[in-house]
Design goal:
With about 180 residues, the chain is an alpha/beta fold. Helices cover about 45% and strands about 20% of the residues. It folds into two domains: about 35 residues; about 140 residues, Glutaredoxin. It is built from six helices and eight strands; from the N terminus they run αβββαβαβαβαββα.
Length: about 180
């Protein structure tokens, strides 16, 4: 029994290493993506909300933003991946993609400074300081981006930073389907 106690840490370490390398192999082969958590909102209406706009404090509701296809991007100044994806969002907005954003659990001064310095690709930014709207969306962390159709139905959620590859493989086909045409915005 004493010998077993001596080898127990080694056995636990070995078991954890096998699990770690097994998951790593599945990630590398594409069998498992740690960001693929299902969203309960897919093919359901965007939750109702009433949030202040970051720019001027006016109250924005769901009725103010639906009516055409758009991206709903959840970001924060404290989020390292948000810094990475922001230039791509600016590019998408310049190409005509409508993007609404949710500044999630952030400081208003830092968020305004961020948009002034890095550019503002958003038609409106909802200030969600307490995270209540993020909770309604099922946000697990920033950044997250939702594709919302013209009727306000959540069609897709992507967890992680958007870039050209993700855009082309995940969003472009869905936009083409939503728009009912062979190409998208």
């Amino acid at each position: 029994m004493q010998r077993l106690k001596l080898f127990l840490p080694v056995l636990i370490f070995t078991l954890l290493a096998v699990i770690f390398f097994g998951v790593e192999r599945r990630v590398l082969t594409g069998d498992y993506a740690p960001t693929d958590l299902p969203s309960a909102l897919i093919n359901k209406p965007l939750p109702a909300f009433s949030k202040p706009a970051l720019s001027d404090g006016r109250i924005v509701t769901k009725a103010d933003i639906v009516g055409e296809v758009f991206l709903l991007n959840v970001w924060a100044t404290w989020c390292p991946s948000c810094h990475y994806e922001h230039p791509f969002l600016v590019k998408l907005a310049e190409e005509g993609m409508r993007i609404v954003s949710v500044d999630y659990k952030d400081e208003i001064t830092a968020a305004k400074r961020w948009l002034n310095e890095k550019g503002n690709p958003y038609t409106v930014t909802l200030f969600d300081q307490d995270g209540s709207f993020g909770l309604d969306l099922g946000v697990t962390g920033a950044p997250e981006t939702y594709l919302i159709d013209a009727e306000g139905i959540v069609r897709f959620r992507y967890q992680g930073a958007l870039d050209e590859r993700v855009w082309n493989t995940e969003f472009v086909p869905l936009l083409a389907e939503i728009n009912g045409q062979g190409k998208s915005q």
